[in-house]
Amino acid sequence: MAAFRQIILAMLLALLATVPAVAGDVPTPVIPAAKGTHCVRPVAWMRKNHMRLLMQLRDAAVHEGIRSRQESLPGCMNCHVSKQADGTYPAATSPKFFCNACHAYAGVSIDCFSCHTNRPAADSAKAAEAGRAPLFASRAAAASLTRDAGGAP
Amino acid sequence: MSDPRQARVRDEGGVDQGRRRFLGAAAVATMVLAPGVSLVTYAKAEDEAAAGAKAGASANKRWGLLIDTTKCKPSCNACVTACSAVNGWKDEGRPTDPQWIRKVEVTDPKTGLSHSVPVMCQHCAEPPCVEVCPTGASFQRADGIVLVDRHICIGCRYCMMACPYKARSFVHETLTDQKPDVPRGKGTVEGCTLCVPRVDAGEQPACVEACAREGAGAMMFGDLNDKTSAISRALASYPSVQLRADLTLDPGVHYRGL
């Protein structure tokens, strides 16, 4: 009986020893690091639900005009996309691009970036800001837009 | 968890109750393991959601434009240039190039009186583009802005045929380097959005701003429903017309001097 126990124990140990090796042999996606300290939702939740969140935010923005700078696709790009060593941004189809790192790994094609930019908004937004003066300094002042917009023609 | 948007997102999955309880427990564990991170994140998300909800499109408003054709000069193209720059479209003169806004020269053949007028989507109260859209992609926001939801648009171009103002364009070719706030893509119909991301942020459309800055200050933007707004007061003080008013589409864009 003792011998049998030893055999079982040896088999279990052997099995345990093989587990890390097997895991090490499976290639995992290389996910580019984000610039920020934390995501807009817990990371584990985002891994599973990011598309649900994006579509919820999308419908709210397009149809209801409820927009959030941080919680939006450009917001994601701002944090998750950085320049590569050669000074260029990774192409949307490249596995070095944040979204595509996992989506290419999983064999899932995404077409978001045939319309949406896959670069941080911050750079281009700065350029756009330089060319325009905001009408109102704050969102509270924006409420007066209904009465004060435009100059008399 | 008081954020209704987040609650809706969480509830969309058709998971059974046992699994939901397990996930709930996992979520609590996350909060305990990393309280600083998750709590700060949720607090921020809820603040932003509350601020955004207030700024959403309201049915109490009806955004409109008033264009003074007696001031608009034929030599000036500032509104078109600004629209193109802000929204990232380019008209290089090819017949299929997009035109979200264009300058149209009109002359009365009898008197020879001519006007130069910017024409863009007229943001009709009864938009024919919305009526004919087979997928619901062409829609009207609560505040009267007529848009294309390009996630739903199948590119049939029925709306382009229905629009009496030729206000919509079709994207024929693959695009790159779109503006972050203005996604545009091949195979969908697009048009003037009244600069909806700017309007939602309390700013004016790019054309109006450029007209005031570089042009003759011939364009005015505001709420047609608010009788005290500058645009409503101007509309009440002198005659103006809507283009093809005979079609009774009640456009949100009004012209003075035509």
Walk me through the structure:
The complex is a heterodimer of chains A (153) and B (258). With 153 residues, chain A is mainly alpha-helical. Helix content of chain A is 53%, strand content 0%. Chain A has seven helices and no strands. Chain A has helices at residues 2-25, 43-64, 73-80, 98-106, 121-130, 139-142, 145-148. The longest helix of chain A is centred in the first third of the chain and has 24 residues, at 2-25. Chain A starts with a helix and ends in a 5-residue tail after the last helix. Chain B has 258 residues and is of the alpha+beta class. Helix content of chain B is 34%, strand content 16%. In chain B, a hairpin with a 6-residue loop joins strand 2 (101-107) and strand 3 (114-120). In chain B, helix 2 crosses helix 3 (35-55) and helix 4 crosses helix 8. The radius of gyration of chain B is 22 Å and the shape is globular. The chains are: A mainly alpha (153), B alpha+beta (258). At the A-B interface, helix 2, helix 5, helix 6 and helix 7 of A face helix 1, helix 2, helix 3, helix 7 and helix 8 of B.
Based on secondary structure, the structural category of chain A is mainly alpha
State the name of the first-level CATH class of the largest domain in chain B: Alpha Beta
Poorly predicted regions of chain A = 15-22, 127-153
Rounded to an integer in angstroms, the radius of gyration calculated over CA atoms of chain B is 22 Å
Give helix and strand order of chain A, one letter per element, not per position. HHHHHHH
Shape of chain A: globular
Range of strand content of chain A: under 5%
> How many domains comprise the coordinates of chain B?
2
Distance between the termini of chain A: 101 Å
